[in-house]
Amino acid sequence: MTDENTWQAYVEKRYSLSGGLPMVEMDELIGAAIFELGPMTYLDGGSLPTDLMLLAGLAERIGNCTYFEIGTWRGESVATLASRAASCYTLCLSEKEMLQRGMHSSAIASHMLFSKGLKNVTHLRGDSLSFDFAKLNRKFDLIFIDGDHHYENIKSDTIQVFRHLVHEKSIVVWHDYGFHPDRVRFEVLAAILDGVGKERAARVYHVGHTKSAVFTGECLPSRPAEFNRVPGEFYKTVISRHILKESQT
To answer: ∠123-124-127 over CA atoms, to 5°?
Structure first.
């Protein structure tokens, strides 16, 4: 299946969620704190400020957090978490695997741009479909799944994470549950729900104003998915520009 309408019908039939996940507001998860986020490039493939705000807030609320992510890309998310977590692990394809998949040299060079050299960040290389998660032999407080966004990959990543990396209080966040905060990506949703299984599916939520879904193991105050409604909240952003040393001439 590749058509979003087909995936939506699949989710509706199997999980009775034709409109998407129930929605939980940000303050239910992280309160009303103010965060300094970054580095961020605002380029394709990155997270929204609200997605990073969610991760940062969860890490700070957990305290002395251990963090794991699938999908390093430029390293923006793990670099944002590194200042808030005790230790961070991030997994991405090896350079050889990227070359085999025909990735452009500049895209390959962009990987780990902001996370390399950070003392509390461990970089793991490999394809999450074949990576041996069991060999890590540890659990993590906060896990961010943001690798390949096709059904089989997300389902596999989710199964492996819950099988090997979570403890009873772990929080799992999936990026790109939505194409944007007001439009569900049903292929991703189908993979998430099939990966967590029906028992856990009732505790997976869409976090309002983000492209992320979250599992906390708790029943949270939520409302049915409702898009194109009059906003009940807004965010303020302070932004500054910085030049990478490698880009200076």
So the answer is: 140
For the chain, which residues score pLDDT lower than 50? Answer: 248-249
Q: Does the CA dihedral 118-165-149-31 come out positive or negative?
A: negative
Handedness of CA 9, 11, 14, 16 (dihedral sign): negative
Give the bridge partners for 64, in sequence order. none
Straight-line distance from the first to the last Cα atom of the chain, in angstroms, rounded to the nearest whole number: 48
* CA 138 – CA 221 distance, rounded (Å): 31
Residue 122 token pair:
């461990």
**Rounded Cα–Cα distance for residues 173 and 146 (Å):** 9
The residue with tokens 């998310």 is 77
Q: How is residue 31 written in tokens?
A: 């309160």
What pLDDT, on the 0 to 100 scale, is given for residue 73?
Answer: 96
Q: How many helices (H) and strands (E) does the chain have?
A: 9, 10
CA distance 164 to 236: 38
What is this structure's pTM?
A: 0.96
Q: What pLDDT, in 10s, does the model give residues 225-245? A: 988 889 888 999 999 999 987
Asked whether 205 and 24 are in contact (CB, 8 A), the reply is yes
Query: Which residues are registered as beta bridge partners of 89?
Result: 68, 122
- Conformation bin of residue 53: beta by default, left when phi > 0, alpha when psi is -120 to 50: alpha
CB atoms near residue 196 (< 10 Å): 22
Residues 123-138 have pLDDT tens digits of 999 999 999 999 999 9
Q: Tell me, rounded to whole angstroms, the distance of Cα 188 from its chain centroid.
A: 12
